[in-house]
């Protein structure tokens, strides 16, 4: 990780071969029970407008399933959250790149990681706030120990030259990911 202009550059990992990672789905009923019985950390991570909220896109969507984010306009999917002042994420597309910007929860370990599955064209943003008793936290009921958002990437995304930056200010963390477009 390198620091540049107030931001910390995160390494984007491509070699995560964790068996069974994200294999336990987070159903809507399970999520609602978990959130109602959880403490403050869970509510911060999964709150309305968070990139990790299963309700970010207007209806329930398991954040461990890959979502085709760049097939949708941010204004359309996030309109109601923006009107209520609850939106903490944005994405856009330019002629040169895809860009994702998001506030991040500041809880527990706060060790945000970005992984890219080059073959599957999926990017995942995850972090852990509590240590799992047995094995890798991502292989079981992952939501009890951390958070994830998996995103399908467009066909022209240049994964090898993608960059991720995290910055902290006034007790908040902010993530920005830039994914250049391949030049065909």
UniProtKB/TrEMBL annotation:
InterPro entries, per the entry: A-crystallin/Hsp20_dom, HSP20-like_chaperone
Organism: Brassica rapa subsp. trilocularis
Pfam families per record: HSP20
Protein name per UniProt: SHSP domain-containing protein
SHSP domain location: 80-184
Tree of life domain: Eukaryota
Lineage: Eukaryota, Viridiplantae, Streptophyta, Embryophyta, Tracheophyta
Family under the similarity heading: Belongs to the small heat shock protein (HSP20) family.
């Amino acid at each position: 990780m390198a620091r540049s202009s107030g931001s910390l550059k995160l390494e984007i990992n491509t070699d995560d071969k964790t068996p069974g990672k994200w294999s336990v789905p987070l159903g809507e009923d399970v999520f609602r029970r978990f959130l109602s019985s959880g403490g403050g950390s869970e509510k911060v991570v999964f709150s309305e407008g968070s990139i990790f909220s299963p309700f970010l896109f207007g209806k329930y969507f398991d954040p461990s399933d890959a979502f085709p984010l760049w097939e949708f306009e941010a204004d359309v999917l996030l309109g109601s959250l923006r009107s209520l002042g609850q939106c903490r994420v944005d994405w856009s597309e330019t002629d040169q790149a895809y860009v994702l910007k998001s506030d991040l929860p500041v809880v527990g370990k706060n060790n945000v990681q970005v992984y890219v599955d080059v073959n599957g064209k999926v990017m995942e943003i995850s972090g852990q706030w509590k240590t799992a008793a047995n094995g890798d936290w991502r292989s079981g009921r992952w939501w009890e120990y951390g958070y994830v958002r998996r995103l399908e990437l467009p066909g022209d995304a240049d994964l090898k030259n993608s960059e991720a930056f995290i910055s902290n200010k006034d007790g908040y963390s902010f993530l920005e990911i830039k994914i250049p477009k391949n030049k065909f």
